Structure formats: structure tokens, C-alpha cells
Structure to design on (168 residues):
């Protein structure tokens, strides 16, 4: 066999190998996106639970939205049009970074987060394990939770203030 024929044969073989590798990569990427879509509800519950733990004051805004998209390293938290205020509250760089950090830890790869209003966004109540077995809270419980918030503790420290329950 001549050298030229061997080189052509080798090139053809390399092209087939590259085409097969590209097809395998495309299939793997599609499976990753499907896995993320299938895990979206669990990721949403995890996000809300972690936001509640790390920044409880913004959790209530987050619960008005839904995790509408998770693909290619990007997550979209969407809000129905009547929840524009909630979306605006979460659309700060610090809040988006917190959500991205939580989702990155959960999904195992670097994520970015955007928030937006979508007509089809439906906020669904998210019931955490603690909420499922929660009993109605007393005023003392609510005050204790509020005082336990790291931001509230820091504000009290800075202003050398105390909180007292207002008798109703």
C-alpha cells in the first residue's frame, strides 16, 4: 500500500472517530440537561430551604416564584406578572449570587441565576419538612426566629438596640 493511501485511510478513520466523539458529547450534554430538568423540583426545595437558613428575610420573596429553567449552567427563577415586586427584591447581585452558590452546590457545576417575570410562571407552595410538621407559631416563637436572623443580630449590635414585643 502506498504512503498516500495510508494517509487517506488514517484521515478517514480520524474523521470517523471525531464524529463519533462529537455525537457522544452531544448525547451526554442532552442527558445532563434532562437530569437537571428532572431534579428541578428538588433543586427548588433545596434553594428555598438554604435561603431560609442563610437569609431568612428574602425567603418569602423567593417563594412567590418558581425555578422555571435549569440548563447549560444557567437557572431562571421566574415570577408571575403580579409578583413583580418579589422579583425586583431578588434581582440584586448579592441575592442572585447567593442563589447561584446554593444551586452550584446542589447541582455540582457552576451556575448563574437570573430572575424574570413570565406570564406562564406559577408559584407553587413549597413545603419543607419543618413546615410539614409545624404547629401554629406563638408571638414568642416568631420573635425568637426574628432575633435569630444574622442580619437582625448585626443591626442590633451596630445600633446597640434591643427588640421588645409590642403587646397587642
Amino acid at each position: 500500500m502506498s504512503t498516500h493511501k495510508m494517509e487517506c485511510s488514517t484521515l478517514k478513520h480520524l474523521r470517523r472517530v471525531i464524529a463519533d466523539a462529537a455525537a457522544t458529547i452531544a448525547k451526554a450534554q442532552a442527558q445532563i440537561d434532562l437530569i437537571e430538568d428532572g431534579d428541578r423540583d428538588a433543586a427548588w426545595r433545596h434553594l428555598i430551604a438554604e435561603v431560609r437558613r442563610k437569609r431568612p428575610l428574602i425567603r418569602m420573596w423567593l417563594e412567590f416564584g418558581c425555578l422555571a429553567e435549569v440548563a447549560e449552567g444557567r437557572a431562571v427563577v421566574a415570577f408571575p406578572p403580579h409578583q413583580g415586586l418579589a422579583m425586583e427584591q431578588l434581582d440584586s447581585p448579592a441575592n442572585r449570587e447567593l442563589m447561584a452558590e446554593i444551586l452550584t452546590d446542589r447541582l455540582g457545576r457552576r451556575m448563574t441565576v437570573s430572575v424574570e417575570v413570565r406570564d406562564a410562571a406559577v408559584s407553587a407552595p413549597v413545603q419543607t419538612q419543618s413546615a410539614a410538621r409545624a404547629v401554629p407559631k406563638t408571638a414568642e416563637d416568631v420573635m425568637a426566629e426574628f432575633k435569630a436572623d444574622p442580619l437582625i443580630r448585626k443591626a442590633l449590635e451596630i445600633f446597640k438596640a434591643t427588640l421588645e414585643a409590642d403587646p397587642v
